[in-house]
Amino acid sequence: METLLALTIGALTGAAIYLMLAGNLMRFIFGLVLISNAANLTIFAAGRLTEGAPPLIAEGADTLTGTAANALPQALVLTAIVIGFGLFAFAIVLVFRAWTTLGTLEPDEMRLAEPPEARP
Amino acid sequence: MSAPASESAAPAPLGNGWVGVLPVVLAAALFAGFASMLPAVAAGSVLRWQADWVPSLGLSLAVLVDGLSLTFALLISGIGALVLLYSNTYLAGHPQYGRFALYLTAFMVSMLGLVLADDLILLFVFWELTTFTSYLLIGFSHEAETSRRNALQALFVTAAGGLAFLAGLILLGFAAGTTRISDILAQGDALKAHALYLPILVLLLAGAFTKSAQVPFHFWLPNAMAAPTPVSAFLHSATMVKAGIYLLARMHPALSGTGVWLWTLTILGAVTAVFASLLALRQTDLKQALAYTTLMALGTLTLFLGQESGYAMTAFATFLIVHSLYKAALFLVVGCIDKATGTREAELLGGLGRAMPITAIAAAVAAMSMAGFPPFLGFIGKELKYAGALAVASEPVLVAGAVLVSNALMLAVAGVVAFRPFWRPASGPLPRSPGEAPWAMLSGPVILAALGALFGLYPDVLQRALVAPTVVSLTGTPAEVKELKLWAGINMPLVLSATTFVLGLAFYAWHRPLRSALEAAFSRLPSLDAGWDRFLDGLKALAAWQTRVIQTGRLTDYLFATFATILLGLAAGIMAGGLPPLAIDVSGATWVHVALAALLLAGAGLTVGSASRIAAIAALGVVGIGTALVFIVFGAPDVAITQLLVETLVVVLVAVALLRLPALARDRFRPAHAALATALGATVALVLLAVLSAPLDRRLTDYFEAASWPEAYGRNIVNVILVDFRALDTFGEIAVVVIAALSAYALLRTTKGDRT
Hints:
The complex is a heterodimer.
Chain A: H1 2-20, H2 25-46, H3 71-102
Helix pairs in contact in A: 1-2, 2-3
Chain B: H1 17-36, H2 38-42, E1 47-54, E2 59-65, H3 67-90, H4 97-116, H5 120-138, H6 145-176, H7 181-186, H8 188-193, H9 197-211, H10 220-223, H11 229-237, H12 240-255, H13 259-282, H14 286-305, H15 310-341, H16 352-355, H17 357-371, H18 377-390, H19 396-418, H20 420-423, H21 439-457, H22 459-475, H23 492-509, H24 511-524, H25 528-550, H26 555-577, H27 591-609, H28 613-633, H29 637-656, H30 671-693, H31 699-712, H32 717-725, H33 727-749
Antiparallel strand pairs in B: 1-2
Helix pairs in contact in B: 1-3, 1-4, 3-4, 3-11, 3-15, 3-21, 3-22, 4-5, 5-6, 6-9, 9-12, 11-15, 12-14, 13-14, 13-19, 13-24, 14-15, 14-19, 15-17, 15-18, 15-21, 15-22, 17-19, 17-21, 18-19, 18-21, 18-23, 19-23, 21-22, 26-30, 27-28, 28-29, 31-32, 32-33
């Protein structure tokens, strides 16, 4: 499954980059969500996949007995998901605000800071 | 080039209060201090002093005083004191005199540090300090655009040379295994045989030649005349431009004696000397004419440093002192003339001898020294120059010829600058009726000119005090010191001297037709100064062009460049490091796994392909749920729960915000973007496969598994990591979310009613 997941992550990344390059902020946000998912899955997969064995210490035992999933990447991914959500929430508000102020979702049409006629 | 208005204020002696007096006292004290070292150094001892600076890097503040250093130090502090005294009157009442005095004093101290440093790094620090302070001095009249331009030109040329110089010093330090200059000088033979000798030499010479304005880097020096006249006197006589000469002299024992050294210095020195004296004769501005004669002097000094013989070294040491004395005196005289009459035009000036008798006599004495008439020191210097030139083993005729022509031209220029303005009748009314300069402005020219005359009459004083110790520093042995004599009998140098007088007087007599001829000839030559402007314009145009091309202002271009860079970085890493054998194994995949992968791929594909917002959002949700399912299947229930919660929140946010946005236009197919996305996706998959094929480092995981219960009393290891072992990270994460929420709130609050 690790091979399969690695290939899937590659495809997700490619799709995310294609969306981010679209020159439309809504598609950019979609790409952002996709690439966050791909990144989380990458961290998760890099710690190896162990099916059906969460890293829980049994009642009465002092340490893990038997094989269990790698706990470290899980902790990292948990943090990453929450931070990714923070980023997404801020980005979507920013896009919304850009739309209400500038009336466009095309970043190439947002020339307030760099007016095209000012170029030599 | 006219003097700034502030310079033409009526001079009042010592008119700047303690700000004007203090630097003079400081410089005089330094001069006295150095003079007190004369007996010891003349007796052949080398004074050293050192303190640790950065011991961990082996850097120390090491100072060395030998004949060469002391000669330079005395010239710098002595002329510095006179120039500061002069400036105090010349710029009396100038609103920024405090700044001027600070710059000039800082420059003098940097120069002293440069000639006294016994450590390569220390030497470089002072070298750069002189570059910066001279930039400030040249650009002192910063209201004038030419002033700013010329200061910047001097800075660029000398700082570029400084970079080469630094590289050369570092190589030299590596080759010698030490940065202590006195140690380096002791291993000259090893250095000359070293593989790095040529690069070291080229880089050091680049630094020295830019600083000392040798052809083809000469163009900045005459432009540096934008500075107030006392600065020109100081920069051109004793200091700035002599820094390169000092470096060549300092490195002479270690690096000279090879063919490259000999020919580079001889040819460039000779070319600079002749070329500059022709240019000097062409000028009608007195200050500009003097500026070009400085180039000539520097060329001659370089020429002699190319040689090995004792005559050449004695000629170097003598001419160094002669030139500093007469050049400083003449610049100060020109400043007096400028101040008194309001012009520096050779063709306007005349009849000043009656109005300014003391200035006229000082100028005449200095000019006689410059022209090389007996009994002045300049005569001895010139005789030695001829003796030194004739002692050049390889090309005595060429060297002596170059020296002869430049000396004859020098005589003519001396006449134009220091004789004609005083003694020929005035050709017309002057801008101001002249009067004698105040004593503070006279003392400099008078003392310097008198020294030139005194040393000419009593050359053995100078010989014992300065020339002999300097030659010993250069050659290492007192046996090579040649004697300074006013009358050395009838010999070849005397014959050449006589020729010089005849030739020089002829040049002077016909200098006006000669000037027009030169003017016509040089105006046809390409001007390096104009070339400099074109170079700067080209640089600016290049910057504008690359800004237009690279900084398009289009977000998609920037993103494309970013992703392409990531791709190149990853690909380069793979190329350089190679890939481990990939463990591609899909045999263990069950139908659940295949279904999960298919779900993710379908969601991603639909997000890309859909032109409908709702469909795209739903497809994103599918990817999110698919990710959560991966977490559930592979033993990460906590992560899965978080993922599902976040997915829910995403849907809420999207419903609130995204659906108020306009509908999506259909996305046209973008082949370049698709290619980049595919390549980067494939590379990511490849890298991940490579990671998965390498052995896993489980040390941290093992630690957490072992410590989770005994240390933190938690059975859910993931939770224990988050809230206990890495609690600070989690706190940071919460802070990030709070900041994002606050920022989002701030953005939304101001939404209403300000749509533009």
